[in-house]
Amino acid sequence: MHPSLVPADSIWTWTQADGSSLQVAWQCHADTPEAAHDSTIPALVLVHGFGASSNHWRHNLPVLGKQTRTYALDLIGFGASDQPQALLPGDRPALEQADRSQALVYSFDLWGKEVADFCNAVVKSPVLLVGNSIGGVVALRAAQLLEEHCKGVVLIDCAQRLMDDKQLASQPAWMAWIRPLLKTLVSQRWLSSTLFRNAARPRVIKSVLKQAYPSGDNVDDQLVELLYKPTQRPGAAEAFRGFINLFDDYLAPDLLDNMQQPVDLIWGQKDPWEPVAEAQEWAKRFNCIKSLEILTKSGHCPHDENPEQVNKILIEILKKFN
Question: What does pTM read for this prediction?
């Protein structure tokens, strides 16, 4: 018998407004009757970052599931969830009607609604959302949609999305000159597919992980495989194309500025991509942020690089709801 009291490695059929459906992979851990049935403690819903999946919470799900029902799902385009063709504005005239019906716009609205609808349809209780990297932006958007059904959000090295058009003022002056060409190039499927194929190799993945995990802890064959395996699915390059063309979408500060729920931050001090200084600025700037925990030896994914400390912090945050 599986130790979880709730089905793990399951598929949820997410029905869209137009009647079409998408298959979402998810898993849940709840190792004790108290964790499975105590309605006073919110369920945890873990949202992974770019290129990852629910399995990236491998060191968190079993531990946190002893405290409360703990879910993780694969965002559309990633892991074992559906990977539809990416639909960009310039694609619309070129696609046949049949192709358009099988395509969608990858966006934070899409993923935020996925998480919010998952919480309403599967979790069916108040939730605490936890997001890493772009999963943090997704969690903030989902929290807005869930309103009072979301009790709080924890951001772990939240993505700052420096390539968004709204960030242009913070970029070097030469970026304004090359940006139109850059946007035209990355919208081309031949180029995005080539970039994806070059990146989706175990050797390259391991090299990126060495940057993301500066301590080297938990960079093992299992991690490389769980990131590599979904890239070999037929639609994987489409999710990559959809994401790298998100030049005008939600930024975390815009969402934080209107956040009604409490937000806690966990950040790796050695994150090579999302500076901890930005997290410190957010903590001063936004009233919704209640705490900032800086992990001195961790990088971009402290929940997997340093799971013992992150699990401890998350359990302390959960205690606020007792």
Answer: 0.91
